[in-house]
Structure formats: structure tokens, C-alpha cells
Amino acid sequence: NAGVMQNPRHLVRRRGQEARLRCSPMKGHSHVYWYRQLPEEGLKFMVYLQKENIIDESGMPKERFSAEFPKEGPSILRIQQVVRGDSAAYFCASSPLGTEEKLFFGSGTQLSVL
Amino acid sequence: KQEVTQIPAALSVPEGENLVLNCSFTDSAIYNLQWFRQDPGKGLTSLLLIQSSQREQTSGRLNASLDKSSGRSTLYIAASQPGDSATYLCAVWGGYQKVTFGTGTKLQVIP
């Protein structure tokens, strides 16, 4: 049973480009969380999704950021028109439905905006 | 709004010492509390999960306790080793599957 898979591991974008970060949860998990971590800072919640639904996006910037978790395929965190301040590590975590509230993390995507 | 604080922010100890990391949360209506470690440039690894009905969990040299009424959890590490050097994070589960992370404690164990 593979763990939470995130790709790419590293992503370099120029200002104004789009960044797409992918997260495949563990098998059988239908809850996905996205977190952002700036250098020397803690994890900041961004969004919580279940299949085809955004449950809580209170931590997501109102502009340029969007997330989805389709019925089939990975969860996608999309950042449009990236700026230097978007440079950070983005972590995805998954949790099983209703059986045990426990988070399993991926290795993260390091986004660098030039 | 749930706020989670970890003290100290950084800790440096000689190898072999026993140590305690602290986690405080403002809203005691939690379901679970989970401790993680994070190595530089890596993701988070789950260490221990304490359900709200439990008071402690143990795994090897690690022991985590939970006191919901006072809004506190502690992570006890026995006989620390250089390999324990990492950042330790606690996370609390509130209603609607909301998970809030603490600020972290950066631990360095000196050989």
C-alpha cells in the first residue's frame, strides 16, 4: 500500500506562470488536506477536500489559488500567475473516511518562483 | 478559533538525556491529538496518535500524554539519540475534521 504520493517533488516557475501540484492519497482514503510551509515556519492549513467536494477552504488565498479532488484521479492544487511569495513547500495529507482520524503526509512539493 | 502552541521553540540536549516537549491548545473540544516529526526538507512522519478518550500512548522510547481539560499534551522522549534530531509538531483534530498544527519544537541532540 503506497503512501501519499505528491508530484512533482520540485517545481520551478517564473513569475506569472501557473503551477499545478498533484496529490494521490493513500488507497482507500477519501479525505485530502493541503498545507503550505514557508521556510522556518509552521504548517498553515489551506484546504480540506473530500471526493468532488471542497469542505473547508478557509486557509486558501481568495485569488489565484484553487483546489479540486475529482472522482477519478489525484487532487490538484493550482496556483495561477505565481509570484515570488508563493515559493514554499506544499504538503498534502490524506485520511481515511470515518474509521480513524489520522493524517498521513506526502513528501511535499517544493515550489520555487523565479 | 483553535490555536496550538509548542514550547520551547528550540531545544538542544546532550545525547542520553530524557526530555519533554509541550503542546498547548486553546479549545479543549478536540477529538484526537497527533504528534509528528519532520526532518529538514522532508514530509511529516506520524509518531503517536492519542484519541480524546485516552490519556497516553507509548511507542518505544516515546510517550505522549493528553490532558484535554487543561488543553495540554506532552511528548516524552527517553534516552535521546542524535537520530532524534528533528522538528516535532503536534496537531489537534477539532470538529468537521479540522486539523490545526502547532508551531513546532526544533530538537537537536548533541553526540
Would you give an account of this structure?
The complex is a heterodimer of chains A (114) and B (111). By secondary structure, chain A is mainly β. Helices cover 0% and strands 52% of the residues of chain A. In chain A, the strands form 2 sheets. In chain A, strands 2, 4, 5, 6, 9, 10 and 11 form a 7-stranded mixed β-sheet that branches. In chain B, 0% of the residues lie in helices and 58% in strands. In chain B, a hairpin with a 4-residue loop joins strand 7 and strand 8. The termini of chain B are far apart. Chains A and B meet through strand 4, strand 5, strand 9 and strand 10 of A and strand 4, strand 5, strand 9 and strand 10 of B.
Helix content of chain B: under 10%
Instruction: Give the rounded overall mean pLDDT of chain B.
Output: 92
The number of helical segments of chain B is: 0
Spans of chain A of at least 5 consecutive residues whose pLDDT stays below 50 are: none
Which H/E pattern describes the elements of chain B? EEEEEEEEEEE
**Sequence of secondary-structure elements of chain A:** EEEEEEEEEEE
Which residues of chain B form runs of ≥5 with pLDDT under 50?
none
Largest pleated sheet of chain B: 6 strands, mixed
- Total DSSP helices of chain A: 0
Seen as an oligomer or otherwise, the chain set is heterodimer
- The share of residues in extended strands of chain B comes to over 45%
